[in-house]
Amino acid sequence: MERIHIYHSNDVHSHLEHWPRIQDFLQQKRAQYEAAEEDFFLFDIGDFIDRWHPLTDATMGKANVNLLNESCYTAITIGNNEGINLPHESLNHLYKEAQFDVLLANLYQQDGQLPDWAKPYTIYHTKKGTKIGVIGLTAPFVQLYELLGWICTDPFSEMEKWIHQLKTEVDIVILLSHLGIQDDERMVQMFPDIDVIIGAHTHHVFPDGKLINGTLLGAAGKFGYYLGQITLEVNQDKTIASKVATLYEYNSLPPLADEVEKVQLFINTGKELLQEQVITLKHPLESHPFQETELSMLLCQAVREWCKADCAMVNAGLLLGPLLGKVTLYDLLTICPHPINPCVVEVTGAELLKLIQESKNETLHHKQIKGLGFRGDVLGIFVYDGIQFQTDGIYIANEELVLSKMYTLALPDMFTFGHFFKDVLPIKEKKYLLPEFLRDILRWKLEN
After folding, report:
1. Largest CB tally within 10 Å, which of 44, 256, 388, 440?
2. pLDDT (tens digit, 9 = 90+) per residue, 321-335?
3. Are the C-beta atoms of 186 and 179 separated by less than 8 Å?
């Protein structure tokens, strides 16, 4: 009986405070299985990078790739944080020094060719000659990829294209899926030839895996809180005798004597690389999630001007601290770490009025947000630019709001991805402005 050991991580999101311990644990496991002459594979399922971390932002993710190299990863696929939170050229050069395979079947250059740093699948041979085909797929944020100069295709169509060819070449099929739990379960129904799906994107956790119609699903949550293991036992005729999944909790892993120093070094290195000065302020710019401040108004004004919109609204909770004195790129990252882009929607005056009224809901202001690119705590109040509140009504660019008139509204893109303003925004066509984040636009405003 052949035993194959597969370890996997996903959605680490640059939570490098967990990385030294995880890396050491992986090195120990690799040595253990090599000594036993058993095969060891190591996969990451995307969103390993997240530009909230100074080291990631300063190196555009290349430092994260070095960490994967050091841990001798076998292969990875990308998540949306690699795919749509990096400019085209940054992603195109991200894996130039990678010592692992990047498996990605549904991302193409504009000419319809796969990028030279990726391939749809690869085949690994174990010591006993078992052939394992591994394919990678990422979440199809089609419109956003298009704005960045990529073509992101339907993952199910790509799987349909590759699965039959792959199955004729290998004994075992594994999918690295940054698609989310619902699409993974749909994959099982549509493609029963997949033996194992290692999932990500929706940050779900399968402590003992999930077996559906003979396909084993594994997933390890987020932020390095867990590390996954899947063990396959294979018969001499290359059929799978058993599939077992388990998770290791980070807190259960042996701590390192110097892990605090290593984690701090990640931060300090990034901070040093982000010391470029943006501006020297004559007076502090304060922030407060529940008060309109000069800084929050400055951000809102910057968003409206950048988008060339009639008006704008942003939530004050986006700003996580003040700016004072010499302002560096690190300072801007610290107070505005979100991978959030501006967005423009065209609305009628009546729709704009409804959005404004909903934005003044105090329950919304105190809402705690997870995901959608938001890296703060609470939403905060909304501040407005180009919108004036007078005793006799609401004015847009100093003219009274007309219910039947069309207006352009600029706002953070997070409000178009979630469950906000559901009566208006979901049905609207959105114009996303990429690749600049809100902190880039705030920098532009400060410099000008």
Report:
1. 44
2. 999 999 999 999 999
3. no
**390 CB-side CA count, 13 A:** 13
DSSP E strand boundaries for 316-366: 326-328, 342-348
Span 365-423, pLDDT tens digits? 999 988 888 999 999 999 999 999 999 999 999 999 999 999 999 999 999 987 899 88
Model pLDDT for residues 113-152, shown as the tens digit of each residue? 999 999 999 999 999 999 999 999 999 999 999 999 999 9
Q: Residue 285: which of 445, 431, 400 has the closest Cα?
A: 445
Q: At residue 92, does pLDDT exceed 80?
A: yes
Positive or negative, the CA dihedral 199, 80, 227, 65 is: positive
Under 8 Å between Cβ of 271 and 328: no
Average pLDDT score over the chain:
96
- The 10 Å CB-count burial string (b at 16+, else e) for 229-256 is bbebebeeeeebeebebebbebeebeee
Q: What DSSP character marks residue 236?
A: T
Whether the Cβ atoms of residue 99 and residue 65 lie closer than 8 Å to each other: no
Residue 229 and residue 5 in contact, taking contact as beta carbons nearer than 8 Å: yes
DSSP letter, residue 73: -
pLDDT in tens, 252-283: 999 999 999 999 999 999 999 999 999 999 99
Residues 388 and 398 sit within 8 Å (Cβ to Cβ):
yes
Alpha-carbon distance of 320 to 277, in angstroms, equals 19
Residue 93 has pLDDT above 80, yes or no: yes
The DSSP result for 180-218, as a single string, is -HHHHHHHHHH-TT--EEEE-SS--B-TT-EEETTEEEE
